[in-house]
Amino acid sequence: MSSGSESRSDAPSLLETRGLVKEFGGLVATDDVSIDVKRGERVSVIGPNGAGKSTLINLITRRLDPTAGDIVFKGDSIVNLKPHQVVQRGISKSFQTASIFPDLTVMENAEIAALAAENGEFGFNFLTHRDKLTSVHELAENTLESVGLLSRAGTTAADLPYGDKRRLEIGIALAAEPDLLLMDEPTAGMSPEETQATVDLIEEVKEELGLTFVLVEHDMEIVFSVSDRIVVLNRGRVIAEGTPDEIRGNPDVQEAYLGGVEL
Q1: Do 169 and 188 have their domain in common?
Q2: Same domain for 64 and 187?
Q3: Are residues 25 and 103 located together in one domain of the fold?
Q4: Contact 59/20 with Cβ under 8 angstroms?
Q5: Is the same domain home to 133 and 54?
Q6: Counting Cβ atoms within 10 Å, is residue 2 exposed (0-12), middle (13-18) or buried (19+)?
Q7: Which phi and psi (to 5°) does residue 22 adopt?
Q8: Number of structural domains in the chain
């Protein structure tokens, strides 16, 4: 890993936000936010409640329209795309609360995600192509294997333990075969054991798939352990960014995020 930072600095930009502004009436949720995520990089976005973290993620995934600014992914602006088109371009998101189909099996959840990713908006004519159905099933199997749930493929999703539901939710995001995975509080509500298993999963995904990800997470221990770089938001603005060591010792971050307490 000694040359990792050098190789990342030379890597092409995968995602750029340029002067992103989002206003809700008189409230400015993001204020001139510009970040640059290199291919293969692990970036965490942190900040106090109301800092604009979720708004930023929703702008990138096109669930919100920016008031001003641009979002560039793989060299092209995506501000005019719909959310499903962004997924097809290679951006996938796992949500803060598990977004699964509880009455379907684990395998069926993964297959639906793979089907939607390949076909965009659901089209029933797609179901007539047996070769495509086969490829979707294989992708779903591979995805479940990557998140350690293949042995539970026939289990109804509602019957999974909470930690496994979150793992399935990450698997659903991975089934889209994204170039960029956005994770919003992936360990929220987990026990310490489930949290560690999820951190291990994130590390495995990074190493095995070479995936680029942006993580929103409140647990600083997780942030410092998995991140190459950290972006700090406060009141909608970027107040700092750097390596975990740089952020840990930044007095502005300590003041804004923890009231002056050292990280």
Answers
A1: no
A2: yes
A3: no
A4: yes
A5: no
A6: exposed
A7: -135, 120
A8: 2
Task: Name the residue among 256, 227, 228, 224 with its Cα closest to residue 240.
Answer: 256
Compute CA distances 78 → 18, 25, 73, 88, 93, whole Å: 12, 24, 7, 12, 16
| Residue 139 covered by a domain | yes
Q: Is residue 76 part of a domain?
A: yes
Domain match, 86 and 190 both: yes
- Give yes or no: residues 4 and 57 share one domain: yes
CATH number at 40 reads 3.40.50.300
| Per-residue pLDDT tens digits of the chain, which is 263 residues long | 334 444 456 778 999 999 999 999 989 999 999 999 999 999 999 998 889 999 999 999 999 999 999 999 999 999 999 998 898 899 988 865 557 889 999 999 998 888 776 655 444 444 444 445 667 888 889 889 888 899 999 999 999 998 888 889 888 888 878 899 999 888 888 888 888 888 888 888 777 777 899 999 888 889 998 999 999 999 999 999 999 999 988 988 888 765 544 55
pTM, entire model: 0.82
Both 226 and 247 in one domain: the answer is yes
Same-domain status, 58 and 25:
yes
Q: Which domain holds residue 59?
A: 1-90+181-195+210-263
Joined together, the tokens standing for residue 184 give 């919003």
